[in-house]
Write a structure and sequence with these properties.
single chain; 730 residues; alpha/beta; N-terminal domain of TfIIb; Dimethylsulfoxide Reductase, domain 2; Barwin-like endoglucanases; seven-stranded mixed sheet; 28 helices; 33% helix; globular
Length: 730
């Protein structure tokens, strides 16, 4: 038996683990007791169901093993097994034809969440000349990173220290999201009385540990933040020294929030006045404090505005770059950063201008990305390229509409890697029609999925256990190839890097892909440190950046003004309102009262459900037994009013369609609100059309509208929270 060292990417916690292998078999994945920060990760890793089911997942009979080529009509579930060379040759040949006829912008891609080398995907498309790759980062983590870089000049991260007095968990930013942060917050509350404030429409697990719970109406978080800011300013609770020295636009912010009294904020958000006041007083007096937010605020219509407002709330209290508050996650400096690899400079201005949706939704587009990077680089040089790939996309709803309608031009080819658009993209019926219109669709994944059933080629991907990786959010953490990607007679899988490199070489990019493997690629990235990848792994697989708190006191902030920009000049340069503002959700009892007569309930989707991770793991029996069926959370009072029994299958309907889930009585939700689980499909059922593993039956994204008119007009993110629906018996 051998023990290999890895970083698990089966969720965003990225826990360092040790993998026990015997020959070509995975025996177990365990916490790594030798890792320098093992104490912080151990409780999370030890309790993880996914870790305990890792062998079931890896050796699952449904894993994709060899390249498949469609042998029948699209969606018929008939396949021919082919070699990798044949797959690469044929795919590249078809791409050449499409590019010759329609230009490189007619080729696009979709990506998932943290399973792939996103910088390599970006490199391929930038070298190709296409700006049209999309991903769910546009409504998950990308907005907070982009706005942090715009407001502070770098992304901030909540770190609970001995002097932290308050932890705010906003919109799911705790358990099942940042579990290491959450375990530290619970420990601080338990051992020294640190307060925890939770802002969430539902009584999630975090609420059980909360000293104050604000049950906000879905989609109104911006009003809450602005009301708290106004109260803090009016009562002189803000950090005057920090504001006077380090904040730009305080007077403008003060004027903008002035109308949000406690009474008005309460009326908008449905939170009692006394709780709004208490929240503002706590935030204004319990300093230093930290805030962690999740998708609950990044998946609503006003996602940019609410992130901006919550950052302004941090800033006026000085909860930025001080010990015990939110700190900058500075990168390890002696490495080639991921966005240096991405080759953004190789995408010409002419091709960048063809970004689908980029003329309208500019913040998380190549234009916005380059503007922000150039500003950061003025102060911090190469560190500016340690940004994330989640901050630079085409607009996904425009992308799928271009496939379908040919406006402003037709997307003819798409490569989907470690993502599942029929489960994770809004307006599933439109996405289905769009994928059917493609001339070439390629999917690279671990398992056959509903989306893959529509592909022309389905290619088997390695997992984190079968490929090397360096996690480089701040510190560098290494992960070795614990198991082979090819076992003769059993399987022949390829790294994501292999896909892009082999296609790139066949499309004339050979000079730009000098590294023959991921190991060589990591030798290149580690060269500034003086280490090879093998040496890095051998010496402990961990390199930490210097721990600097208060760097701004010497250098200022990496923004155009050198200060924290409450009044955001980056937004202003892009043609948007530079201050946070509140507006009603596109569909609500107040903005669309006539629609609310037919659809009287507010619908939330997408709350995290263990042991799944978005659309993954439903085929792993050990995990599926934990949560076998999709559940709709509904208040018992409302359910009884509708004649619905606990555990009864019901219809959930919006103007876009209807799905069925199992009603579950839940007292921790307002009677006017329901929550439907997202990303449900049934891998055990038939894959061929029209069934597609039941993708249309219980999938919450059937209900989600992502029309560009209701998307966030700054970033283009579409709302999955705060819609209107009705629920009724089957």
């Amino acid at each position: 038996m051998e023990i290999k060292k890895a970083v698990c990417s089966q969720c965003h916690n990225n826990c360092p683990v040790q993998i026990r292998v015997e020959g070509n078999r995975l025996l177990a994945v365990e916490p790594d007791p030798d890792f320098p920060a093992a104490k912080a990760f151990y409780p999370v890793t030890q309790a993880c169901r996914r870790r305990r089911a890792a062998a079931d997942y890896f050796h699952h009979p449904g894993r994709l093993n060899y390249p498949l080529k469609r042998a029948g009509r699209r969606g018929q579930d008939k396949w021919e097994e082919i070699s990798w060379d044949q797959a690469f040759d044929e795919i590249a040949g078809r791409l050449k034809e499409i590019i010759a006829e329609s230009g490189p912008e007619a080729v696009g891609g979709t990506s998932g969440t943290g399973r792939t080398h996103d910088e390599i995907r970006q490199r391929f498309f930038n070298l190709l000349g296409s700006p049209n790759h999309v991903g769910m980062g546009a409504i998950c983590y990308g907005p907070q990173c982009t706005m942090a870089h715009s407001v502070f000049g770098w992304r901030i991260f909540p770190v609970v220290r001995a002097d932290t007095k308050l932890a705010v968990v906003w919109g799911g930013g705790g358990p099942n999201y940042w579990d290491v942060f959450w375990s530290q917050a619970k420990k601080a509350r338990r051992e020294r009385g640190m307060k925890i404030m939770v802002i969430d429409p539902r009584a999630t697990e975090a609420v059980r540990h909360a000293d104050l719970w604000l049950q906000v109406r879905p989609g109104t978080d911006t009003a809450l933040a602005m009301g708290m800011i106004n109260y803090i300013i009016q009562n002189d609770l803000y950090n005057k020294e920090f504001v006077d020295t380090w904040c730009h636009g305080f007077e403008e912010l003060k004027a903008r929030v002035a109308e949000y009294t406690i009474a008005k904020t309460s009326e908008i958000t449905w939170i009692p006045e006394e709780k709004v006041r208490q929240a503002a007083e706590w935030y204004g007096t319990l300093t230093p404090g930290v805030t962690s937010h999740g998708e609950g605020i990044e998946e609503q219509a006003a996602l940019v505005e609410v992130v901006h407002a919550r950052y302004a709330l941090n800033a006026i209290m000085g909860n930025v770059e001080t010990r015990g508050s939110n700190v900058f996650a500075f990168p390890y400096p002696d490495v080639v950063h991921v966005e240096e690899v991405a080759a953004h400079e190789r995408l010409s201005p002419e091709q960048m201008a063809k970004t689908l949706g980029g003329d309208r939704f500019r913040l998380i587009s190549p234009k916005g990305f380059n503007l922000i990077t150039d500003t950061i680089r003025n102060l911090w040089g190469r560190e500016a390229y340690a940004r994330t790939a989640y901050e630079c996309y085409a607009h996904a709803p425009s992308f799928y509409r271009a496939m379908l309608t040919g406006e402003p031009y037709r997307v003819r080819a798409c490569i989907t890697q470690a993502s599942n658009p029929l489960l994770t993209q809004g307006n599933v019926n439109l996405v289905y029609q769009a994928l059917q219109k493609l001339d070439l669709y390629v999917v690279h994944d671990f398992f056959m999925t509903p989306s893959a059933q529509l592909a022309d080629y389905v290619l088997p991907s390695t997992t984190y256990m079968e490929r090397p990786w360096i996690w480089s959010y701040a510190a560098l953490i290494g992960s070795e190839r614990a198991l082979p990607k090819t076992v003769p007679g059993a399987y022949d899988r390829r790294d994501d890097y292999d896909l892009w490199r082999e296609l790139g070489i066949r499309l004339g990019q050979e000079a730009d892909w000098p590294w023959e493997s991921l190991e060589e690629y990591y030798d290149y990235r580690l060269a500034p440190s003086g280490l090879t990848f093998a040496e890095f792994m051998a010496q402990g697989r961990y390199l930490a950046p210097p721990k600097i708190v208060g760097r701004h006191e010497q250098d200022g902030f990496a923004t155009p003004t050198g200060k924290v920009e409450l009044y955001c000049t980056t937004l202003e340069k892009l043609g948007y309102d530079p201050l946070p503002r509140y507006y009603e959700p596109p569909a609500s009892p107040y903005s669309t009262p006539e629609l609310a007569e037919k659809y009287p309930l507010i619908l939330i989707t997408g709350g995290r459900v263990q042991p799944f991770y978005h659309s993954e793991y439903r085929q792993v029996e050990k995990l599926r037994k934990v949560h076998p069926e999709p559940q709709l959370q509904i208040n018992p009072e409302k359910a009884r009013e509708l004649g619905i029994e606990d555990g009864e299958w019901v219809w959930i309907e919006t103007p876009l369609g209807r799905i069925t889930q199992k009603a579950t009585y839940f007292t921790g939700i307002d009677p006017r609100v329901v929550h439907a689980e997202h990303a449900w499909w049934f891998p055990e059922e038939e894959g061929a059309e029209p069934h597609l593993y039941g993708v249309f039956r219980s999938n919450a994204n059937v209900l989600v509208d992502e029309d560009p008119e209701i998307c966030n007009q700054i970033s283009g993110g579409f709302p999955t929270r705060g819609m209107l629906c009705r629920v009724y018996k089957k």
